Design the sequence.
């Protein structure tokens, strides 16, 4: 598996898209710092970008890579290799190279700006950690979609739809249900609702760490009590991990049974 | 009969004689020294001996005394901060005469009662009092002024241990007072830092109020007061102004009032108030206002609050001009669609318009009320969706064509740059 991982990783490192992705984050970091002149404000703006863009790029890139390297995959399948290690290796190659572009692209300008001297370092690390989690989750979801659909157009369609659903539509439905059931206590419902969507989960995690929660009165206090304590932090990180593990397991299962 | 004739005939001489006598006694005002080794060992004894105009000098030491009643115009000075320990027997010092000065004591252990408001120092129906440089600890009420006018409360430090509202008192409490100057006091961990009820023409300057269970400064039915240059930190609410009018609130810094019912400034049924040059930073709600008319909010900074300004209804003819609204989660929250207030010339950090003619004023008006703030008012739990893409989308569509928010509620002249206020 490590060989395949290494191969996929180097393959992607040589590809143009990784550089574009890296350059995009580099530019974003530099521009944000240049315009804002304020590290903690830049972290908030960055959050908005990461929450939306990282899942989108993760999904599209994952699907694209799977379809593009399909012939090579079929060649590998002819070799005496375990199927799960082929697909997991490819998956990890994509996810790690994407995460690296993200971490380096954003990290470099911030380090030059004086991140280590600033107290925004924890917020920033949290941002990068959730960004990496989102990459892992959405690449895995993308591989799932690609494995289940032979038709590329269909695959891309589902991938975009998945992103659209989790980034926007889910929140719409969530909000509607909150308004419809407003007569009932909604603390737990909203916490569960957040856990079920990795984008919402990451957003809430970052927001609450940025201490906005304390500014938001009663409900903020309830959420702060949950996310602000170590217990809540552990729960939400395990939820994120679960979001990585379950799709990856499905990749392995699906790959085992799939007929090429 | 003869007597009366005599008095009438020589009344001017007699008056002159008594006046002269009085001034002589004044000139000969004595100083009584109190210490453990002096002839006078207790403050109580010294007060008994003293006559009008005398000075009592209390040397360093601990004096276990309570219920000291000062019924004549004397001056009590503590040297090296002597401690008066009330042993929780109730009230410690009660002033019931004009022109009393109390200076430099540490007063501790006031009794707590649920029926009587025991105070460390109580001033009753007196004029011209000065209470300064006191340190009050382990108290119920601190300095309690009752129907007393023309006095000063200066540079006192009050440190309570209040946890709940019902069994704690206020640090500086004014009831039916006027013309009192409250300056330079440091009040912490009590119920209300400074409390005014039915008190007019009070100046509150340079005070520091922190960690109080209820409010840093609390007005009830008090008019014509000014609040200048104070700092309020981490109180239940910074300032609560209720049922009052004609106030000046200027140059105050109100920060970190966090919690379920926490506000920087709470305005309820107040009219004709000027709020200028204040800084509201990191509060759950910067200002919450209800039923208040003809208020002027000018040159204030609202920085990183949950809500900068929360308008709850029945507020008319208010002016919100030349303020900075910086990085608040919500700038303005509004109930209902009726609107009669002026928003003009403010700087909004969330403004996204442009300035083609380069006059420093944005060419498109700014709408400070977001649709999401309406939703959160209705369903508080929806706050968990803050900064979500979906919320940004509905806010944007509401901005383009207002349906739920008042369509005339906007700043026609939003500034492009942060306003530098002249803060001396």
Sequence:
């Amino acid at each position: 598996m490590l060989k395949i991982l290494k191969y996929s990783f180097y393959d992607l490192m040589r590809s143009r898209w990784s550089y574009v992705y890296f350059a995009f984050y580099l530019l974003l970091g530099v521009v944000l710092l240049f315009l804002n002149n304020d590290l903690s404000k830049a972290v908030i703006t960055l959050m908005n970008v990461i929450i939306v863009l990282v899942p989108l790029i993760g999904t599209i890139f994952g699907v694209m890579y799977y379809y593009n390297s399909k012939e090579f995959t079929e060649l590998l399948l002819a070799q005496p290799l375990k199927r799960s290690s082929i697909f997991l290796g490819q998956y990890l190659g994509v996810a790690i190279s994407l995460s690296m572009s993200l971490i380096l692209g954003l990290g470099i300008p911030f380090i030059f700006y004086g991140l280590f001297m600033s107290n925004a370092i924890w917020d920033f690390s949290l941002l990068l950690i959730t960004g990496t989690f989102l990459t892992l989750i959405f690449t895995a979801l993308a591989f799932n979609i690609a494995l289940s659909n032979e038709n590329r157009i269909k695959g891309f369609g589902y991938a975009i739809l998945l992103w659209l659903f989790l980034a926007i539509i889910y929140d719409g439905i969530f909000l509607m249900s909150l308004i419809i059931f407003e007569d009932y206590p909604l603390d737990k419902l909203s916490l569960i609702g957040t856990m079920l969507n990795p984008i919402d989960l990451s957003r809430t995690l970052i927001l609450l760490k940025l201490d906005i929660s304390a500014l938001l009165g009663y409900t903020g206090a309830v959420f702060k009590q949950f996310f602000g304590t170590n217990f809540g932090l552990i729960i939400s990180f395990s939820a994120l991990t679960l979001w990585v593990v379950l799709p990856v397991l499905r990749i392995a299962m699906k790959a085992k049974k799939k007929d090429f | 009969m003869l007597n009366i004739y005599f008095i009438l005939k020589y009344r001017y001489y007699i008056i002159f004689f008594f006046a002269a006598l009085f001034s002589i006694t004044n000139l000969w005002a004595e100083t009584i020294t109190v210490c453990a080794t002096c002839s006078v060992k207790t403050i109580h004894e010294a007060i008994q001996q003293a006559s009008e105009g005398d000075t009592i000098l209390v040397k360093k030491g601990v004096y276990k005394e309570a219920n000291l009643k000062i019924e004549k115009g004397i001056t009590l000075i503590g040297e090296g901060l002597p401690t008066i320990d009330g042993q929780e027997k109730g009230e410690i010092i009660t002033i019931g005469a004009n022109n009393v000065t109390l200076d430099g004591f540490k007063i501790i252990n006031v009794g707590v009662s649920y029926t009587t408001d025991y105070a460390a120092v109580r001033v009753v129906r007196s004029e011209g009092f000065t209470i300064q440089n006191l340190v009050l600890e382990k108290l119920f009420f601190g300095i309690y002024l009752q129907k007393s006018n023309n006095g000063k409360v200066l540079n006192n430090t009050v440190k309570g241990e209040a946890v709940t509202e019902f069994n704690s008192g206020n640090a500086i409490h004014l009831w039916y007072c006027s013309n009192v100057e409250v300056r330079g006091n440091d009040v912490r961990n009590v119920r209300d830092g400074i409390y005014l009820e039915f008190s007019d023409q009070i100046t509150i300057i340079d005070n520091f109020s922190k960690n109080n269970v209820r409010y840093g400064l609390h007005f009830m039915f008090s008019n014509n007061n000014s609040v200048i240059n104070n700092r309020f930190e981490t109180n239940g609410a910074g300032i609560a102004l209720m049922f009052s009018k004609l106030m000046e609130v200027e140059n105050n810094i109100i920060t970190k009032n966090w919690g379920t019912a926490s506000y920087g400034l709470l305005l309820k049924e107040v009219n004709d108030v000027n709020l200028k040059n204040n800084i509201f930073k990191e509060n759950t709600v910067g200002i919450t206002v209800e039923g208040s008319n003809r208020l002027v909010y000018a040159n204030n900074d609202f920085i990183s609050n949950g809500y900068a300004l929360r308008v709850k209804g029945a507020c008319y003819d208010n002016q919100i001009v030349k303020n900075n609204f910086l990085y608040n989660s919500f700038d303005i929250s509004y109930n209902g669609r009726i609107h009669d207030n002026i928003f003009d010339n403010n700087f909004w950090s969330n403004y996204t318009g442009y300035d083609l003619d380069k006059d420093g004023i944005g060419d498109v008006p700014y709408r400070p009320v977001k649709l999401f703030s309406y939703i959160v008012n209705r369903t508080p739990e929806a706050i968990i969706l803050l900064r979500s893409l979906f919320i940004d989308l509905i806010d944007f569509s509401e901005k383009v064509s207002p349906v739920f928010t008042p369509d005339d509620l906007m700043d026609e002249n939003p500034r492009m740059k942060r306003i530098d206020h002249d803060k001396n």
Q: What stands out?
A: Residues 70 and 147 of chain A are 10 Å apart (CA to CA).
